Amino acid sequence: MSVSPVRSTEIGREGALVDLPIIETEEGLQTEELILNMGPQHPSTHGVLRLVLKMSGEKVIECIPVMGYLHRGLEKIFEWRTYHQGIRYADQADYVSNMLNEHAYAGAMEAIGGIDVPRRAEYIRVIVDEMSRCAAHLIWLGTYGLDVGATTPFLWCLRDREEILDMFEEVCGSRMNFNYYRPGGVLYDLPQGWLGKLERFLDRFADRIEADYMRILEGNEIFLERTIGVGTIPAHVAKQYGITGPMLRASGVDWDLRRDRPYGIYPELKTLRPVVFPDGDAFARFKVRVGEMRLAIALIRECIANLPGGAVRARLGHVWKCPKGEAYYTVEGAKGEVGIYMISDGRSPNPFRAKMRGPSFNNLQIVPWLLKGRLVADVVAILGSLDFVLGEVDR
Amino acid sequence: MAIEERPAESKGVPIDFEQDVIQRRPVSSQAGLAGEDIPIRRSVIAEDDNVVFTTVTNLINWARSRSPWPLGYGLACCAIEMFASVAPQHDLSRFGAEVFRSSPRQADVMIVAGTVTHKMAPRLRRLYEQMPEPKWVIAMGNCASSGGEFWDSYSTLQGVDTVVPVDVYVPGCPPRPEALTEGVLRLREKISRGG
Questions:
Q1: How many domains does chain A have?
Q2: Distances (CA, A) of A22 to A5, A8, A12, A58
Q3: What is the largest CA-CA distance in chain B?
């Protein structure tokens, strides 16, 4: 697919308001530039992203993303809350996979304070992290199905996600925004009989991935037509834009923080083999995310088999004071590298600074490059495959 | 329900966005749910011939209350729970409110699900004005109801009732799908009472 369909690309931003330039397409047709505003209230922008598309006929010649419609000042709020209260706000960043944000925030505190996490807590963390990743990928799969015109995957994915949320509710009492992590462990131990329930769910879920999702999407001609070869990101471009997570692995770069910058007990898990596909298109991203759900099932099963006993929370005392220091702690989130850079001044009960690296924000940077020269019909199919959450983009 | 009476002078005042957001003057219309009950004029069914005597207003309100089609204004975390309430487990279509559209064109009720920021508030107000009459608003979640946990944020609106009149507040962070269903049911009550 050619990237530059028009000859005249020097179009001033202010020129759109007064006189629209006449642009000439390759076929020799003369057409007027058209500004198409997409969002912030749009079903396919997955939140409140706004895209200003400059069109020549059906082709996008320039795309300007406008963000900030969900900017809630999370990083400033981190500075106004105590360390424990901040965990609750870390939930709000990527509200589809909350546990992974909490892990990054709690991990940053532990890195500064030098807290040792009990082994049982580490195993529980892997279990809830991977369940959260499954929930995030299920939401993505369902809404991406809606984006490309399939309704049934949405209903099926939400069915499985509800089961995951029910189990989270048993663990920590909330369906979303869990507030489950603590510096030095997790809040509660797993309830009785929960692991058996989880195992039964994993069996069902593994069957459903093969029997339902793969069958209805991978064998669907319309889905294949709309995703194969659409939105291709070569590996070097993906690296240049700082893309992480499933999008990077779908471009053929074998980079997974769980293995390459290990944290927790991930290095001990034998089933951890990152899912990599070389194609870089929307279909490869679909394959990577489905593969990550399968990988998550294997990791959870291994953790259940080796789950040790003991405490789930390190003893820190009633008033825990974070010592002076700074740390950057990264977690392989559902969208990519979730990082918290935290500075503690050693005196105040609040962090001096907590900077969050949201993977969606960095992954979103490639949108103008990716949409340039594509058809407007592909815009939704490309945007959906990127899987960004605006709570994490705007923060 | 302990919902305090709004001051009389704040009713019917045209909304100036800048002024009202800064002064945080609520323009909620809680008359149907909180204080005085609007009496329901019941219909009469004649014994013999399957004839129903009722007023046109009653009939229209009854019809309206049975299918409040929402404008799904999903902004943040609550949007995910709003999806979940449409999904098969918590089937919102049992109560006639399953047709979620992102366009204000055919919408009856706007479900504001999530944190409204200062940048988003004028768009929300515009979408509300583009909805055809009659229209209702459900503020879903703590953020949309009162600012919630972002009560001291510099960039969020402290309750969506500072820009649009809200009919039903659904508390929770985020509210469970059952809570949203309850909110829709309360809105149905309110509509059928002519609210």
A1: 1
A2: 14, 9, 13, 15
A3: 66
Pairwise CA distance, residues B88 & A153, whole Å? 12
Cβ distance B43 to B61 under 8 Å? no
Q: Could you report the predicted ipTM of this complex, rounded to two decimals?
A: 0.80
Beta partners for A339? A330, A357
- Extract the tokens encoding A6: 């028009």
Q: Which pTM value belongs to this model?
A: 0.82
Please report, in tens digits, the pLDDT of each residue of chain A (395 residues total).
Answer: 334 443 333 444 444 444 555 666 666 666 777 888 887 877 766 778 888 888 887 888 888 888 888 888 888 898 888 888 888 888 888 888 889 999 999 999 889 888 888 989 999 999 999 999 999 999 999 888 888 888 888 888 998 999 999 999 999 888 888 888 988 888 888 888 899 999 999 999 999 898 888 888 888 888 888 888 888 898 888 888 889 989 899 998 888 888 888 888 888 888 888 888 888 888 999 999 999 999 999 999 999 999 888 888 888 877 778 888 889 999 998 888 999 999 988 888 888 988 998 898 888 888 888 888 888 888 888 888 888 888 888 88
From CA A94, how far away is CA A99, in angstroms rounded?
9
A-chain CB neighbours of B173 within 8 Å are: 177
Domain containing residue A246: CATH number: 1.10.645.10
Alpha-carbon span A103 to A81, nearest angstrom:
18
**Å between A175 CA and nearest CA of chain B:** 8
Q: Which amino acid, A379?
A: V
In a domain, residue A23? The reply is no
Residue A385 lies in a domain: no
Minimum distance, in Å, between the CA of residue A356 and any CA atom of chain B: 17
Q: What domains sit in chain B, N to C, each tagged with a CATH number? A: 69-195 (3.40.50.12280)
State the CB neighbour count (10 A cutoff) for residue B52: 10
Are the beta carbons of A221 and A234 closer than 8 angstroms? Answer: no
Q: Extract long-range pairs of A252-260: CB within 8 Å, 24+ residues apart.
A: A252/A276, A252/A277, A252/A278, A252/A279, A252/A280, A256/A332, A257/A330, A257/A331, A257/A332, A257/A337, A258/A332
Facing A158 at nearest CB: one of B83, B123, B127: B83
Interface test with A, best of B155, B157, B176, B180 (most A CBs within 10 A): B155
Q: How far apart are CA A91 and CA A103, in angstroms?
A: 10
> Could you check whether the bond before residue A349 is cis, i.e. omega within 30 degrees of 0?
no
Residue A273 belongs to some domain of the structure? yes
Characterize the bridge pairing of strands A22-24 and A30-32: antiparallel
Whole domain around residue A279: which residue ranges?
74-365
Q: Which residues contact B131 (CB under 8 A, 6 or more apart)?
A: B71, B104, B107, B108, B110
The answer to whether B64 touches B134, Cβ cutoff 8 Å, is yes
Residue the block writes with tokens 């015109």 = A149
Alpha helices in chain A (DSSP H): 74-80, 83-90, 98-113, 119-147, 152-172, 194-208, 221-227, 235-240, 246-250, 257-260, 282-305, 359-364, 367-371, 376-386, 390-394
Mark yes or no for CB contact A70/B75 under 8 Å. yes
**The pair of three-digit structure tokens given for residue B51, joined into one six-digit string:** 């004839």
